[in-house]
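Per your request, structure below.
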């Protein structure tokens, strides 16, 4: 299972700030949550508290009528209900309000036609005031009759608590029927007010609980209503929106996907325009006409709650062992204070460690937390009532194919993941009564995953015994969680702590712990006269310098910016290590793709390479499948008995118990023979913990893409006896993905490579890039690599010949396309999408395809999984060309595209709001990855007005504007945008990544100075909960230099300070 990015619960966060370890956290502020004009009206109303309730009620209605008039304009004032029109029916027609402005508060009724100037119609409405009906699949609303607007006369709990009304908000106690709604799954009530939260209480609960259905209050102006799609009945409120009818004052509730996207003809037949679709949730609150936010009077009387209390209450509700009827009045406040105290959280990752045991004590619990979160995520995705299609593979194994509901959460199925299929037989007895149910269970690993072509998942069954291939419906799919990866990390930490057993070089251990950093130890070796390896490209000076350093040092960090030949450099280092030591070299990376790419390059040098992969991935093909251990077994010579048993197993699918035992003995012997003869063994970091490698010691270990691995992940190969360690990566790009937020905040999301850089170990940087058009590399070089990147290719090598595309500047194949569309919460409730940007992306893509660019040359990237999923669907349904062309275009998240490249990159920024920030886009490392994926051209689609408020994007947008590539208008007539930006100056012109790293280091130092406990011979400072002695050699402050009045900055960060 793989995680696309760290965006879980991101819609609850203001997420513009980076916490101690680079993850985004909530920044609670008191945000306005209503139309300013209506706020003024409400404030006027709150000044009349001394009047009688009837007077206040009348005043409130008059003020709301004034607000409606000011926003409705000259819109036709009539409403259509029930079955009296083309959308209506006995179960109610469509819900909401009929004006184009989405803030109008309608009253939902049945069988009533209202004309504002017709007294008889008004009287008829009055007679039917108790005939409020459920929406069914949509209802019709009276936009202008406010007779049923209920004012705040019900019980509201004060700040000190008290007995809550049965339908009061369980956060703040507001119980006004027009403000509260019930969660359809847990049946709890919440209001549409924010308090001091970034989202309304109702939206906050739905996101945290992963619930998606909402029922309105029976006494509210819309009646007891279940919100659902008119066409398909879907009830996911994050996916629901409305379309105003053209002929009548009605609105239709429709889901964004698939109905509003694919059912355009049906919608138009109902006199509605699909392009007018708007979401029910905007700015993280429900629309005002659907649920009113509490006014100032109600807010003054409600309970004051903070984010910590709300989070703790949601955790209690999510805990199945605790009474789920708990409310704030039931919470032990002192217990809550204990939970939020510094001492009860996980220990924070340090820069330096006193002992390997201390290292284990800090990282062990963090790995456990991530394991528990991973298990919870997988087990929550179990699905039932699945249709299964059966087949037989070439290896005679039974294959099962089925569709499962796709979630646009962060977790994605990957090849090799294990799934469990279950089927329950209900057999009848002789008297036709139902007998005892019998359940079949079968395990299998994933061989096919959903893609642009379809949602089908394929698994290969482990055993063919008793598989019910004659059954097709009623199956249950369970996601199998395996602790193997986490167990291997824990084992490596234990092994590292037991220094008597581990054979790792003491010098490497000291450096990993943060000791003896400045000692420059040289390993005696004979350097080759020619550093270029067989069948690999010639090397440039920076690559040769990096290789020299790696061959002569026990610990080396090599920084490989995008397109600088990092893989070639790594393969060359491995080649020379193998040739000079005549001992096997262990090569690892955190992902299988990275391992395969490096394995391919190493194989070209002529070395004997074995690719060791997990047994669950043996059926998955790759460019280096022929080097995989299990495939080399089939071709090994001189093992006739093994080949015969293998052939028999392939033909029959299974062996007898005796033959199977003999087969395993022979197989293990051959595996040992192949591994012993190998010059290089390649596997993932976690794969290095495979029992088949447990007897081997590897003096030379190289870890590629080490920035994307957690520290415990890197320890798995290191503890196999490393005496020479090379870490290759780029701390200016994205780090490891850690899904447990608590573990990430404690420092698990900080890679070993980054921590060593922060300690002052200077990485050797590769400085010549061979990927990007020179015009594309200039901004990343200046802002992320201090202008150090040189171009190894010229302008003419990156021209797309015979391709006509309207670039604003033909010699600069890039531009920023201005888009004013609004962001929306995605169907998962934890991500974002932007429909306007998706439409522009489709037009740009179609333009490239018409110009002759092949689909495989185009990559579409976006920071948000919600936008990625929406783009896939939108291109299929709305693309003007054949759907097959769009299916061949890769659409992925920015995080998933790290380490990849395409000829053309189109990026959708998504974020477009007035006050919620830009989230993940504010991370300079993510922008660096996004801007450096393209070889020939890049187009960015976004809202420059919103993005320019942030320093990083302000620089990029000003750069685009100065180069004449900030444009707007139709693609065939692009014109420079006239928008103006305020230039934001950087202190001392410190580059973006440099400033980011400085901030990270200063946060470590601030944490160290915050809690001094004092022990030993000198004063002690702490980082998190652990301490180290400041008088010890190589204290961080002894390796600092002050530059231009800035805070102390560590020397040797691997970057230069302008």
């Amino acid at each position: 299972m793989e995680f696309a990015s760290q965006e879980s619960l991101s819609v609850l966060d203001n997420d513009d700030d980076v916490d101690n370890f680079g993850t985004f956290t909530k920044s609670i502020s008191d945000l306005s949550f209503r139309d300013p004009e209506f706020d003024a009206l409400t404030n006027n109303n709150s000044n009349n508290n001394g009047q009688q309730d009837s007077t206040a009620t009348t005043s409130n209605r008059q003020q709301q009528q004034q607000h409606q008039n000011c926003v409705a304009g000259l819109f036709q004032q009539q409403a259509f209900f029930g079955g009296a029109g083309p959308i209506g029916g006995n179960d109610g027609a469509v819900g909401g309000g009929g004006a184009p402005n989405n803030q109008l508060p309608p009253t939902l009724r049945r069988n009533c036609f209202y004309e504002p100037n017709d007294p008889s119609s008004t009287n008829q409405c009055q007679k039917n005031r108790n005939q409020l009906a459920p929406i069914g699949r949509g209802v019709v609303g009276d936009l202008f009759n406010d007779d049923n607007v209920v004012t705040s006369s019900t019980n509201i709990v004060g700040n000190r608590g008290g007995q809550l009304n049965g339908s009061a908000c369980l956060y703040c106690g507001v119980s006004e029927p027009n403000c509260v709604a019930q969660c359809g799954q847990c049946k709890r009530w919440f209001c549409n007010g924010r308090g001091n939260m970034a989202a309304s209480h109702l939206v906050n609960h739905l996101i945290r609980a992963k619930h998606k259905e909402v029922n309105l209050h029976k006494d509210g102006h819309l009646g007891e209503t279940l919100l659902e799609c008119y066409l398909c009945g879907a009830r996911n409120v994050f996916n629901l929106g409305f379309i105003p009818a053209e002929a009548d004052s009605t609105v239709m509730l429709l889901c964004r996907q698939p109905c509003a996207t694919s059912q355009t003809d049906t919608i138009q037949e109902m006199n509605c325009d699909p392009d007018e679709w708007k979401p029910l949730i905007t700015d993280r609150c429900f629309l005002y006409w659907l649920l009113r936010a509490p006014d100032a009077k109600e807010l003054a009387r409600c309970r004051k709650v903070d984010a910590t209390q709300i989070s703790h209450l949601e955790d209690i509700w999510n805990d199945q062992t605790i009474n789920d009827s708990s409310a704030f009045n039931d919470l032990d406040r002192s217990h809550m204070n204990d939970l939020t105290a510094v001492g009860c959280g996980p220990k924070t990752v340090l820069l330096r460690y006193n002992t390997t045991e201390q290292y284990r004590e800090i990282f062990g619990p963090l790995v456990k937390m991530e394991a528990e979160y991973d298990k919870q995520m997988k087990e929550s995705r179990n699905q039932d009532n699945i249709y299964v299609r059966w087949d037989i593979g070439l290896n005679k194994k039974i294959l099962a194919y089925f569709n499962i509901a796709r979630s646009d959460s962060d977790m994605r199925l990957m090849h090799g993941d294990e799934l469990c299929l279950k089927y329950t037989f209900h057999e009848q007895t002789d008297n036709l009564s139902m007998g005892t149910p019998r359940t079949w269970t079968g395990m299998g690993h994933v061989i096919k995953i959903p893609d642009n072509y379809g949602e089908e998942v394929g698994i290969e069954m482990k055993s063919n015994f008793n598989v019910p291939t004659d059954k097709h419906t009623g199956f249950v799919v369970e996601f199998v969680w395996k602790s193997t990866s986490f167990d291997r990390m824990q084992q490596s930490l234990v092994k590292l702590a037991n220094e008597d057993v581990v054979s790792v070089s003491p010098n490497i251990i000291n450096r990993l712990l943060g000791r003896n950093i400045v000692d420059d130890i040289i390993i005696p070796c004979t350097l080759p006269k020619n550093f270029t390896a067989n069948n690999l490209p010639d090397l440039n000076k920076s690559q040769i310098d990096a290789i020299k350093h790696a061959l002569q040092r026990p610990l080396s960090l090599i920084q490989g910016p995008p397109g600088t030949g990092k893989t070639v450099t790594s393969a060359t280092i491995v080649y020379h290590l193998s040739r000079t030591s005549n001992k096997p070299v262990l090569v690892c990376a955190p992902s299988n793709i990275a391992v395969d790419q490096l394995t391919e390059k190493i194989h070209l040098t002529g070395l004997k390479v074995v690719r060791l992969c997990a047994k669950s991935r043996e059926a998955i093909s790759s460019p280096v499948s022929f080097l995989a251990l299990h495939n080399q077994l089939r071709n090994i010579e001189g093992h006739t008995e093994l080949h015969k048993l293998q052939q028999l197993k392939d033909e029959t699918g299974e062996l007898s118990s005796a033959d199977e035992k003999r087969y395993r003995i022979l197989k293990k012997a051959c595996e040992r023979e192949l591994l012993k003869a190998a010059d290089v063994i390649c596997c993932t970091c976690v794969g290095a913990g495979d029992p088949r490698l447990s007897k081997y010691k590897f003096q030379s270990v190289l870890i590629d893409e080490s920035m994307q691995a957690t520290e415990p992940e890197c320890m798995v190969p290191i503890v196999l006896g490393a005496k020479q360690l090379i870490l290759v990566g780029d701390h200016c790009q994205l780090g490891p993905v850690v899904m447990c937020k608590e573990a990430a905040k404690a420092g698990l999301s900080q890679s070993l490579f980054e921590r060593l850089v922060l300690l002052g170990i200077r990485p050797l940087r590769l400085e010549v890039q061979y990927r990007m058009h020179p015009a594309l590399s200039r901004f990343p070089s200046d802002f992320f690599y201090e202008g150090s990147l040189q171009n190894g290719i010229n302008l003419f090598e990156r021209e797309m010949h015979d391709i006509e595309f309207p670039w604003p500047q033909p010699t600069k194949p890039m531009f920023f396309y201005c888009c004013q569309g609004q962001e929306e919460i995605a169907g998962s409730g934890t991500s974002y999408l932007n429909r306007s940007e998706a439409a522009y992306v489709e037009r740009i893509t179609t333009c490239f395809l018409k110009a002759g660019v092949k689909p495989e040359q185009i990559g579409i990237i976006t920071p948000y999984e919600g936008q990625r999923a929406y783009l896939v669907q939108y291109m299929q349904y709305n693309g003007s060309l054949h759907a097959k062309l769009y299916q061949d275009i890769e659409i992925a998240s920015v995080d998933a595209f790290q380490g990849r490249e395409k000829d053309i990159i189109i990026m959708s920024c998504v974020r477009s709001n007035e006050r919620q920030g830009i989230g993940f886009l504010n991370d300079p490392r993510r922008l660096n990855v996004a801007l450096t994926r393209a070889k020939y051209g890049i187009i960015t689609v976004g809202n420059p007005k919103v993005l320019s408020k942030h320093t990083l994007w302000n620089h990029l947008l000003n750069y685009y504007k100065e180069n004449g590539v900030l444009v707007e208008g139709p693609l065939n007539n692009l014109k420079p945008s006239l928008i103006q930006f305020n230039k934001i100056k950087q202190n001392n012109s410190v580059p973006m990544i440099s400033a980011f790293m400085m901030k990270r280091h200063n946060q470590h130092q601030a944490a160290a100075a915050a809690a001094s406990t004092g022990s030993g011979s000198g004063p002690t400072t702490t980082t998190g909960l652990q301490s180290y002695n400041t008088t010890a050699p190589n204290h961080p402050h002894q390796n600092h230099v002050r530059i231009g009045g800035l805070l102390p900055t560590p020397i040797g960060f691997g970057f230069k300070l302008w």
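Confidence is low (pLDDT under 50) at residues 15-162, 338-342, 1010-1058.

Regards,
D.
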